[in-house]
Design a protein that fits this description.
By secondary structure, the protein is mostly beta strands. About 10% of the residues lie in helices and about 35% in strands. The protein has 1 helix and 11 strands, in the order H-E-E-E-E-E-E-E-E-E-E-E. A hairpin with a 5-residue loop joins strand 9 and strand 10. The radius of gyration is 22 Å and the shape is elongated. The termini are far apart.
Length: about 140
């Protein structure tokens, strides 16, 4: 019985019945748009680098304009921004038991977990920091 199931599956692969779907935009999505299920659909065929399921895109934010009918690639999407450019945000440096907190100005838009440039408000030094869920920029050594 198992052997028969394997033969049927192989026959389907050899005749080209197996296919992959590609995630496409159903209408033009502007940059900085949060993707919903109504924005995307599946098109038969596989496009290299394109997403294959809506669950991988829904809830993310578009980084660029995605035109109707175009495949959606992972690089076109990112976490929704919680910090806008020029926004004043908490800046935190932690090393062992040493903790330094100050304010900084975000030099980029960013979502949770992304690395951004932040200008220390006191020293005017620009540092790279990873954005936490609470909007705090965590400076790496």
């Amino acid at each position: 019985m198992l052997f028969r199931a394997i033969l049927i599956a192989l026959a389907g692969l050899l005749t080209g019945q197996a296919s992959a779907d590609t995630l496409v935009a159903l209408h033009t999505l502007r940059a900085r748009t949060i993707v919903t299920r109504a924005d995307v659909g599946l098109r038969p065929g596989e496009v290299v680098g394109a997403l294959s399921g809506s669950e991988k895109a829904v809830g993310l934010e578009t980084r660029t304009v995605i035109y109707a009918g175009r495949p959606i690639r992972a690089r076109d999407l990112g976490q929704p921004a919680i910090v806008e450019r020029n926004q004043i945000i908490p800046l935190l440096f932690r090393l062992g038991s040493l903790e330094i907190r100050t304010e900084g100005r975000a030099l980029d838009r960013a979502g949770i977990g992304e690395t951004i440039r932040v200008m220390n408000a006191a020293s005017k030094t620009v540092v790279s920091a990873t954005l936490g869920a609470d909007g705090t920029a965590h400076v790496a050594r």
